[in-house]
Structures are given as structure tokens and as C-alpha cells.
Amino acid sequence: MNNINTYINQHKDRFITELIDLLKIPSVSADSAYKNDVLKTADAVKEALEKAGCDAVEICPTAGYPIVYGEKIIDPKLPTVLVYGHYDVQPADPIELWGSPAFEPVIKKTEIHPEGAIFARGSCDDKGQMYMHVKALEYMTQTGNLPCNVKFMIEGEEEVGSVNLGIFVKENHAKLKNDIILISDTGMIANDIPSITTGLRGLSYVEVEVTGPNRDLHSGLYGGAVANPINVLAKMIASLHDEDNHITIPGFYDNVEELSTEERAEMAKAPFSLENYKKALDIDAVYGEKGYTTNERNAIRPTLDVNGIWGGYIGEGAKTVIASKAYAKISMRLVPNQDWKTITDLFKNHFESIAPAGVTVKVTPHHGGQGYVTPTNTIGYQAASLAYEETFGKKPIPQRSGGSIPIVALFEEELKSKTILMGFGLDSDAIHSPNEHFGIFNYLKGIETIPQFFKHFTELSK
């Protein structure tokens, strides 16, 4: 495979242009106003897989957005790699904070990406990382370097919970049969410090509604005499953490995995500058559960965060009103052994129990998923490590991530195969935020590294 860099250099401009064209389509799965754009993106992914060399590609309908499936089977006796990714993206809001329009991709140089980065919603999460695999397949098929079979399963609902993907997986065991699952929807420590994600947190996502009087009230005539749902909601949310930022829901920590001193010491070996971390976020102090470091708090400990809160009057000027209702969206990131459905029930029961007289509370679960840990003693992990070592010139560091890919645990349960998480994004790429971007270096490095994984996995499988 020593000709891969030559191939990438020859086709670099086209690779970038193709990704930019894909990023122009606003495939926001959370907003029905973008339905046609999401469907258009599925068509674009199908066409890209066909051009890259898949022998069979189909758009598989679901009750929601379709799944794009493709395959290139060169010999049934050889190993099969199943590539998973998603073509849907997060909403661009708040759009006024973008330096350039979210769906009009531009390349800008930054301190971290001196060679340039593509600024657009979905550039890193996950269109850019998904498309690396498409271009890696193109290289392998065009140059005769595909060493094993490959299947693609690219969905359009990852950002809204992947409900229909679970159904699809359960109904298509034979179609999806594989020896390893490969995903690039995570990150690495730095462009000169490669890492492999070995753990993901689970997720429970809920919406809460607090209702007081049967209509909005004049705050002068009724203030102090009637429960204010916004005040009540604020107090209820504040009570969910104690003074040590420990979550107060009874039973919440019952199944939390406690890492040994040795395991925590290994985690601490990963390069990390607290001062640079604070500088990058423009904060003067970090915050979190007492007794744990910043990297432990965002990787091996569960969390509870309010993602949105609203109610009453928020327009220009003043309106003295006690709102009838107040709302919040809350996410809980979970660690292995915490069942997301159990945690959702614990939250619901607790939140309803702490409601004071004068209001009613409704908790609506949205979606969730289990945490996942990838063992480092498998041939899949070894193949990934060797691949990074070849292209980066150094051995990657195993690292747990604070993020969630809820369907990874489902894959293992249903398809009985392990998942390898080969991410090429950086923490600074602003995924889910305004000005999301993905480095040109990272994009091309992914295209270079992925074929090496295929080569080593095939060799190690013999």
C-alpha cells in the first residue's frame, strides 16, 4: 500500500470538493423542515458508494429516515468489515454565532489546523469522518488493494437516537454479518498524538414540564401567592446536584463502574494541559464532581446536564408575567453497567417526587443507549493500533470518550461482533456547536489510515 499517499495527493482536491458538496446539504434530522434535504443526502451517499466501488448499494426504508447499505464482497472466505456512520447532522442553531453560514462550507486556516479546516455543520460529526471511509474504499478498489470484504451501513437518525436503526439491525442479521465493525465518529488527542477510543458513555435524554396555574398570570397581582413554575423548575434542577457536584437521584450510582487506582493512573498518562484546556474554552476554572480530574469527569464518571430551559416571556422589553408552564431538556451521560432505561425511570420517579405543592410535573423520556468498552487485547484493536503506527509514526494511546454512540452496544448484542472506534476529529472541532470544523490534515490522514486497518485486520485474521 505504499502508493496510497501518491493516490491521495493526485485526488486531494476532488476529495475535498466532494465532501464540501455533501456538507452543503442541510441534513438536519431533528427538524422536519429539512426532510427533503435529509433524503437528498441519502441519495448522495448511495451515489458516492457506487462510484467508490461497492457492487451493491441500496436505500433501505425505515419508519423514519432511510439507511444506506452497500457492500463489496470479493471472497466470502475472507473477513468482512462493517463500516457504520451517519449522514444526518445537528441543527445549526444558534446561527448568529457562526463566522460563516453553517451550510456554506469554507476552508479557513487556524492555529491548530495551519493547513486549513472545513467549517460547516457536519464536517466532523459525521459527514467528514464517514466520507473518509468512502474515499478509502475508492483507493482500495481502484488500486487493487482491497484485502477483504466490506459492508457499509450509513444511517440518517443518529442525532435523534437511532430508533429505527435498532429495528433494522435486528431484522437484518444475515445482511449485516461481519467480523468487525469500524466506526469513525470519535476523536483523537491531537494531530501528533493519535489515540483510539476504547470506551463510550451511555445516554438518557428526557424533557420535563412543570405546570402551575391554568394561565399566565400578572406578576403583581399574583406574585408571592401562586407557585411560579419557572422558579420551581430552577430549584428542582438545582437540587439534582449536591455541594460536591454529586448527583442526588437515589440509586443513580448503584451500578457505576469504579476504576482501580492502576487504571486511573494509566488514564493520567495521556498528555493533557489544564491551562490550555481552560484557555481554549475561555474559562478561569474547571468544574465537576469532587475527587476526580477533568479527564475522569468527562470520560469515566456519569453526569447530568440541562441542555435547554425555557418558559414565560423572553421577547424584547418587559412583560411582567408568571408563566403557566416551564420546561427543560436534560441529558445524563452514563458509564458502563448503568442501564439507560433504569436511569430514566429513576430520574422520572425522583423528579416527580420532589415537586412542591402547587405544581404538577411531567417527565417525557426521549432516547438513550448503553455505554460501551472496547477491549484492547483483540485483533481488531491490534489492527487499528498498527494502522495508526504506520501513518502517524507512533503507537496510539487508548482513551475513553465522554461521548455516546448508543447503538454500539446494540451492535454487539445483535451482531455478536466487536466495534473499533477510529476517530480523527479533535476536541477543538466544535461538534454540536457553532463553527464546527474538520481539519484537512485529519480528513486526508483518515483516508490514509483506514486502508492500513483493512490490511492488518485481514492479516491478523488468518
How many domains? The number is: 2
Could you say what the CATH topology of the largest domain is called? Aminopeptidase
Q: From the alpha-carbon coordinates, what is the Rg to the nearest angstrom?
A: 23 Å
CATH class of the largest domain: Alpha Beta
CATH homology superfamily of the largest domain: Zn peptidases
What would CATH call the architecture of the largest domain?
3-Layer(aba) Sandwich
Specify the overall morphology.
Answer: globular
Mean of pLDDT? 96
Largest sheet: 6 strands, mixed
Share of helical residues: 25-40%
Content-based structural category: alpha+beta
3D architecture notes:
The protein is of the alpha+beta class and 462 residues long. It has 2 domains: 4-200 and 371-460, Aminopeptidase; 202-256 and 302-369, Alpha-Beta Plaits, CATH 3.30.70.360. 33% of the residues lie in helices and 21% in strands. It has 13 helices and 18 strands. The protein has helices spanning 4-23, 35-52, 127-142, 163-171, 219-222, 229-238, 261-267, 274-281, 294-297, 340-353, 379-392, 407-415, 440-460; strands at 56-60, 67-72, 80-86, 106-108, 117-119, 149-155, 180-183, 195-200, 202-211, 217-218, 303-311, 321-322, 325-334, 360-369, 372-373, 397-400, 419-421, 437-439. The strands form 5 sheets. A 6-stranded mixed sheet has the order 1-2-6-3-7-17, sandwiched between helices. Helix 3 (127-142) crosses helix 13 and helix 11 (379-392) crosses helix 13 (440-460). The protein starts with a helix and ends with a helix. The mean pLDDT is 96.
